[in-house]
Specification:
There is one protein chain. The protein is mainly alpha-helical. The chain has two domains: about 55 residues; about 35 residues. The chain contains two helices and no strands.
Length: about 90
Amino acid sequence: MGDYLFIATLIVVALVVLVLVIYLVGVIIYLFKAAGHLKELAGGLKQIESDTAPLDGKLTTINGALNTLHGGLSSVNSHLGAIARVLKL
C-alpha cells in the first residue's frame, strides 16, 4: 500500500512539474515576442524624435505669431463688445 502511495505521489509531482514547465516555456516565448515588439517600438520612437527635432524653432516662431494674433483678436473682441453695448445687442 505504501509503495502505491509513493508512486502516486511521484506521478502527481511529475505532472505538476510538467504543467509548470509548459507554462513557463509559454511565458518565455511570449516574453521574447514582446521584446521584439518593444525593439520595434523603440526604433519608431527614435524615428519620431529625429523627425520632429526641426519643429522646435518653427514652433517657437508660430507661438510668437499666435500670441501677437491673440492680442489683436482680443482688441477686436473688446471693440465688438463695445459696439454691441452701444447697439444694445
